[in-house]
Specification:
Order of helices and strands: EEEHEHEHEHHEHEHHEHHHHH
CATH superfamily: NADP-dependent oxidoreductase domain
CATH topology: TIM Barrel
Helix content: 40-55%
Radius of gyration: 19 Å
């Protein structure tokens, strides 16, 4: 059985590897709707029943809704996003022309309510278990009167959202959000994995003190920490941090020399941090999904982590 953790003050029990729906949004290769449905159903069978979705994840919302149709609402968890960044996409309205100046969204409370209502109507799921405000350009406007957080809290009072939070990278933004006392959950990006652990000081102590649930994005760095060829994974995952690639190659070779799965090592390294509750992974097919489940269900010996730390890669 896949390990689960309490997602902070939300009280939700989530799998340690929630399903990031970006994986079937055609952003890393085509995935047909029927394939996405089979993938979602298999994920639920395996206990990976938390789906983390966003409007900017290609056409994933168009696939997630039909995949969940007919399933008991209590059988799955959905965390959604209100994209507050420029490149939000709009698979719900593909007929609209993409004009850069028109796509910087309105971060007002009213806009947040309208956006969430539209997504929920499209998905047909009734409510979001959590709603994350995604990549706000600044926190003053977002947290201020009539701002995005106010809209999320209105949705919570209406029962359309059960928990609210933020998905973003800047640590000071996370600390400001936590300090409001209104945040239940958060998602940080690329700051807790084998390559870097800056969230251990900048975010996790503050979240733990407030019992805020934590999702940790990029635990496998978009595939470069899975054991496949690093350069091929970087190209497929659009990895732009070239300085990470030599270290990822060295980690891959270290694992090959010892007959160890880098995927197991990367994911179980993150699981050792108990202040992190979930590490979303965007599986593109059933084989990837099942490999990820095995990687968190088959513990590596403690000696592996000690030896890896001694290698100072």
């Amino acid at each position: 059985m896949i390990p689960r953790r309490r997602w902070g003050r939300s009280g939700l029990s989530i799998p340690v590897i929630p399903f990031g729906t970006q994986g079937f949004g055609n952003m890393f290769g085509p995935v047909a709707e029927a394939e996405a449905t089979a993938l979602v159903r298999r994920a639920i069978e395996l206990g990976v029943n938390h789906f983390d979705c966003a409007r900017c994840y290609g056409d994933s919302l168009r696939k997630l809704g039909p995949a969940l149709k007919g399933l008991p609402r209590e059988s799955y968890i959905v965390s959604g996003r209100i994209c507050l960044h420029r490149d939000r996409g709009d698979a719900l309205h593909p007929e609209r022309p993409r004009q850069a100046d028109d796509w910087l969204p309105d971060a007002s409370a009213d806009a947040v309510e309208r956006d969430a209502e539209e997504q929920l109507a499209f998905l047909g799921i009734g409510y979001f278990d959590a709603l994350l405000l995604h990549d706000p350009p600044d926190m003053e406007r977002c947290l201020g009167k009539g701002g995005a957080l106010e809209g999320a809290l209105r949705l919570k009072r209406r029962g359309l959202v059960r928990n609210v939070g933020f998905g973003m990278r800047p640590h000071d933004f996370h600390r400001e959000a936590i300090a409001t006392g209104d945040v239940d959950v958060l998602l940080c990006f690329n700051d807790y994995n084998l390559l870097r652990q800056t969230a251990a000081e900048g975010v996790l102590p503050y979240a733990a003190a407030a019992d805020v649930g934590v999702l940790n994005g990029f635990s496998i760095a978009r595939g470069i920490l899975t054991g496949v060829d690093v350069d091929a994974a970087a190209a497929r995952g659009h990895w732009r941090l070239d300085d990470d690639l030599p270290r990822a190659r060295a980690m891959r070779q270290w694992c090959i020399d010892r007959g160890i799965s880098l995927l197991h090592l990367a994911l179980q390294f993150c699981l050792r941090e108990e202040r992190i509750h979930g590490n979303p992974l965007g599986s593109q097919n059933v084989a990837e999904l099942e490999a990820n489940v095995r990687a968190v269900s088959e513990p590596l010996p403690e000696s592996v982590f000690l030896e890896f730390a001694e290698a100072k890669l």
